[in-house]
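Hi V.,

You were right to ask for the full record rather than a summary. Here it is.
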Amino acid sequence: MEKNRHAGQIGWRSPSNIAIVKYWGKYGNQLPRNPSISFTLSQAFTETIIRYRTKEDTSGISLDFSFEGQPNDGFKNRIAQFLEKNKEEFGALQQFHLDIESKNSFPHSSGIASSASSMSALALGLCSVENSIADNTLSGTELLKRVSHISRLASGSACRSVYPHLAAWGQLDDIPGSSQDYAVELDGIHPVFHDFHDDILIVSKEEKSVSSSAGHRLMDGNVYAASRYQQAKDRTAILYAALKSGDVEAVGKIAEDEALTLHALMMCSEPSFVLMKPNSLEMISRIKDIRQRKKLPIYFTLDAGPNIHVLYPDAIASQAKEFIDSELIQLCEEGRVIRDRVGHGPEQIQNFSL
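Predicted structure:
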């Protein structure tokens, strides 16, 4: 796109991600208490278009926002507060009015990390606008670091969505280049994980009763917090080694242990909260049962919500699909399943149909 310092439009599609080791607990300005590793997804994504034009009053933030074709003041205010809080990061953008349109391929706020896809798509758009209106020529790794940094300021887990396949966030000696400030792509990962499947079973499309932000804050008073952060650090190192060696069983075990740890932490917070539903527990039971009976490498994880992510390698895709269709799909709300898998990261939108 040719640079235009007065007006233009830029769009990005950015995926959600599913953490294997979970980020739960933060400090400072969106910094993680423990490292995390996630799969970047493919079919669960947000598309965001930013149209910008110069304005006369350059003293503050000016924007409009619509979500799935409708004005949304809640999201608009959140974005405005984010830009105001971090205005030193976006000095040039204060000269422009931003008209932002966004839509998801999956239910918002139902535990599929909608903030990860939406805020990474927003950050990609904002950084692209910067490149169009200023002499900012960041590219390649340095651009992705900046986008990941901006994404992190908007929503912690969003910083991992800007990379293909797998990403790590948080300082860990075992992972070269890892940082508290931004995520990094994981190199040297065994090919079995490049096309790993994640079928997302929608137990409930309802918005979560407790936001992830509130859950993170409750970790500050959780009696198990210190041991949890050490546990996550240890598991991240083990997971990274298993991802490089192709140890599907070890990765699956950590995915399940981390999911149950996350929900246990919610249940022992003060106040406590429970996000799993009866059908979530039934699905977990059936997944464990088929793995024991048929020795199939099928595993589960959850984010901060009731929906089950079924993880399995591409080599058993037909058997996994048969199992899901025969035993799990009837437990989904309206039979809804998002057939997802590890993806190649964000893509710039060329057809502005939003």
